[in-house]
Amino acid sequence: MRLRIDGIDRDARQDESLVDVITRHGGSLPHVCYHAQLGAIETCDTCMVEVNGQLARACATAPADGMVVSTVSPRASAAQVEAFDRILSNHLLYCTVCDNNNGNCTVHNTTKLLAIDHQRIPFRSKPYEVDSTNPFYRYDPDQCILCGRCVEACQNVEVNETLSINWEDPNPRVLWDGGSTIQESSCVSCGHCVTVCPCNALMEKSMLGHAGFFTSLKKSTLKGMIDIVKGVEPETGYGAILQVSEAEHAMREHRIRRTKTVCTYCGVGCSFDVWTKDRHILKIAPEHGPANGISTCVKGKFGWDFVNSPDRLTTPLVRQGDTFRPASWDEALSLIARRLSDIKAASGPDAIGFISSSKCTNEESYLMQKLARAVIGTNNVDNCSRYCQAPATMGLFRTVGYGGDSGSIADIEQADLVIVIGSNTAESHPVIATRVKSSHKSNGQRLIVFDLREHEMARRADLFLHPKPGTDLVWLNAITRYLLDHGLADSAFLDQWVNGLDEYRTSLEPFTMEEAARITGLSIEALQTVAHEIAQAKRVCVLWAMGVTQHNQGSDTSTAISNLLLVTGNYTRPGTGAYPLRGHNNVQGASDHGSMPNNLPGYQPVDDPQVRARFESAWQVALPKRKGLDNHQMVDAIHHGTLKAIYLIGEEMSIVDSNANYVGAGFEKLEFFVVQDVFFSETCRFADVVLPASPSLEKEGTFTSTERRIQRLYQVLEPLEGSLPDWRIIQHVANHLGAGWNYQHPSEVMDEIASLTPLFAGVSYKRLEGYRSLQWPVAADGTDEPLLYTKHFAFPDGKARLFPMSWGGPTDQPDSQFDLHVNNGRLLEHFHEGNLTYRVPGIREKTPDTWVEVSPQLAEERGLQSGTWVRLISRYGQVRVRALVTDRVQGRELYMPMNSSEIAVNRLTSSHTDAATNTPAYKETSVRMDVLAEVGESPLPRINSRFGHPTPQKGVEVERKWKRPDYHIPGSQFLRVINR
Ligand code: SF4
Ligand code: SF4
Ligand code: SF4
Ligand code: FES
């Protein structure tokens, strides 16, 4: 399109607003409420322009061919100034003593842009107190310009639906749950609102008093200074005041650092700038992340206090009897080298095992497996994807060829139908959940949820189905069979792209709808409804997580999902595909980079001589030929006396592995155990040597998120004195064992990975600079694949494979002695057992402990209430825990979040595993419940967001503002030519 803007011909695209077009061409149109990722909000009116002679908001105007636009006509200029005058009547300009004076304050910058010297509408204080009740951020109504960005972000991006503006009130303000304090509201502290606020009305508490040179002054002094600033305004005008504040801002530039990192918590892969002043984290600023944009959850936005915790390990520790003593790095490393060498000499390399970390970087995973294979000579190396993701990977390997999400988060957003199976997405992968919630709320996306619990996604779903525990395989197969039997399969896709239909179809014979209804407890009608929804939807994505994988047929159920997608042609196209949601930040990358007993980096099998030859030539060693032990087998091997030593990094294995009592008993039998971590974890208690590592903010490297996205993290802080990044420690261990490695920077490790691994051939730090990212496979020329299988599936003939199905039934079933099923999983606020997040005071305040969820029916039957202590006893162990009565669970099904080291759910779980991958069947656990005499406080304080009452609405609802009697479109009442 061609437009004429201020007399010059300009091009425009269909997906742009007029504001975008004007700013892209270097124009300086004011726009306060508009935010590219929120779209037009239309509350501020500062972007008024003349379009074909009429006043219009540029943010809400789509460009059209031949359009004539003036941004500087007398009428447009007058409208812009009048609109901004109204904004200043809601905001005290005291920039020099404001923590938001960092060059990015929209109000400050617009004052300057419009060359405002004096405001015509005087500032009017609002009759409300500042709300500082939330531990992470505060709201100052007097500074709030009522732009509604926060409301839009909360309602339509995060879709927590907490915020609104009471437009009809004489003194409108932002409301939490319609008028609650922030602390008592449904606010989940995701930070979206704070991130998008264009001024200082919403601010991170970590900024307050820390960002500016004069902002840490006492409140009374600060008020005096604000009064001085305001006092000189009538005489000097804002120009002079802004000059002073800009000088102060320039001084800040020298001491505030902004460093890009990638979130250390879950596998969504959010990235953001970390603002720091020395070691103080001022704020997390998400904006450019390819996975998240402005989005975060509470952990990524506010969960970083652990980095400066006094509990950090800052020296190696060596066991001395039942305690530990500090040791020098040299002593600890020499001891490790001596003991590992002795054990290798006495019992062979396979007497040693290595556990890598999915919190660590790709480069660290690579070095860990290189240490195991090339220095010690064993394939006994694994990572915690064994505990969660291996079955999903297996299901995809069997059917489509690559063990990763088949598309991107953007594809999930575009789907017409999203099916979520065994995933508490809103708590475990919060930012992915925002995309589903948002598409569902605003774009008509259909949502079907299969789960045991009625969690947030289930409550939002168009259809929520609750099958009996461990029976997903059956309904998946029955629906697929129904689609094939009723001519609802995509036969053209099957003909062109898929092998193995006949054998697969035969295997489906037992999976009739009647049989599925009998086994799953779901009605035939419900299953048929789902089948028809799938058949009718043009684009279907299936999201699944540990509710599927952590079963004895986790691999088969994951395979069944992929089979269903193949039968319905839901691969290869945008908006379709298979999305196993990866748990840890780098659980995908840990396996991708070879910390697996059967694969070298890039899923290259250890028993392939050609593959081995390539690595042997590069590493100049002979490599072990047979596949090694996975971490489940390692524990058995310790008990059998064949595994004598383990070197483990960043993994709380003693309580996150299933059947924790058995694992702990194994660790006690080890001859030598090295644990490397940021804190003295539960697992450290079993160690002989503990090595102090640095967390992600203190190192360089790359992580790979759930959408196969490789992203760089930059060092935000120096490693805390005494600790070291894991890659340096692994290199020290290797060199004390005589390896002679000399990596100076993780980029050199990545270059080596790329040279040996076709999957990552084109990956380099240069190509990943800043916010650039690559989604594997990455060809040598740097071409990546956000959507897989667009040309062919990852098998030699390019065709996918339907994999035959059979049903065995879950293990560890309830009986008369153990009569209840206990499910478990993550919680929004804490990551996993909480080793990092319990060191964040705000998170601790909101969510101080764990609990067991009990249904109202069962609570009544057993005579208990929230806060009653109960003892859960399984066939493998017991825990004492407080009950939380909630209708999220039903009948005789319990749920225990895993956010506790002391009350670890894995004291209850078994050693049953998925046959194909050895992933523990965590979700197949039966218990009995003894109600104890003690009744305490509810384990969930009233200030937890789960007690809030959201106020869903379409967005900021600006139409209600326009209906106010005191509102008129600016520029329509007075016309002034201003000098710009
Ligand atoms: S949930 Fe809370 S922190 Fe998140 S956008 Fe809404 S009000 Fe803001
Ligand atoms: S608090 Fe909300 S409405 Fe007020 S200025 Fe900030 S983003 Fe705008
Ligand atoms: S925990 Fe996950 S969703 Fe939350 S900010 Fe980090 S990567 Fe994003
Ligand atoms: S930027 Fe257009 S109305 Fe606010």
Describe the structure in your own words.
31% of the residues lie in helices and 16% in strands. The protein has 980 residues and is α/β, with parallel strands linked by helices. A hairpin with a 2-residue loop joins strand 1 and strand 2. Helix 8 packs across helix 27. The two termini are 29 Å apart. The C terminus is likely disordered. The chain binds iron/sulfur cluster (3 copies) and FE2/S2 (inorganic) cluster. The site of FE2/S2 (inorganic) cluster has 12 residues, from loops.
Strand content: 15-25%
Number of helices: 31
Average residue-wise pLDDT: 96
> What structural class is derived from the secondary structure elements?
alpha/beta
Beta-strand segment tally: 37
Radius of gyration: 29 Å
Layout of secondary structure:
Layout: E1 2-5, E2 8-11, H1 18-24, E3 48-51, E4 54-57, E5 68-70, H2 74-88, H3 106-113, E6 137-139, H4 149-157, E7 163-165, E8 174-176, H5 192-196, E9 202-204, H6 219-253, E10 257-262, E11 271-277, E12 280-285, H7 298-302, E13 317-320, E14 323-326, H8 329-347, E15 352-355, H9 362-376, E16 381-382, H10 390-399, H11 409-414, E17 417-421, H12 425-428, H13 430-442, E18 446-450, H14 456-460, E19 463-465, H15 472-485, H16 491-497, E20 498-499, H17 501-507, H18 513-520, H19 524-536, E21 540-544, H20 546-549, H21 554-567, E22 577-580, H22 587-592, E23 599-600, E24 604-605, H23 609-619, H24 631-640, E25 645-649, H25 653-656, H26 660-669, E26 672-677, E27 689-692, E28 701-704, E29 709-713, H27 726-736, H28 746-756, E30 773-775, E31 800-801, E32 820-825, H29 841-846, E33 852-854, H30 856-862, E34 868-874, E35 878-885, E36 893-897, E37 926-935, H31 958-962
Parallel strand pairs: 1-5, 15-16, 15-25, 17-18, 17-21, 18-19, 20-31, 21-22, 25-26, 26-27, 32-36, 33-35
Antiparallel strand pairs: 1-2, 3-4, 3-5, 6-9, 7-8, 10-11, 11-12, 13-14, 13-27, 23-24, 28-29, 29-30, 32-37, 34-35, 34-37
Helix pairs in contact: 8-27, 9-27, 9-28, 10-21, 15-18, 15-19, 15-21, 24-26
Bound molecules: iron/sulfur cluster (3 copies) and FE2/S2 (inorganic) cluster (FES).
One iron/sulfur cluster binds next to helix 4 and helix 5.
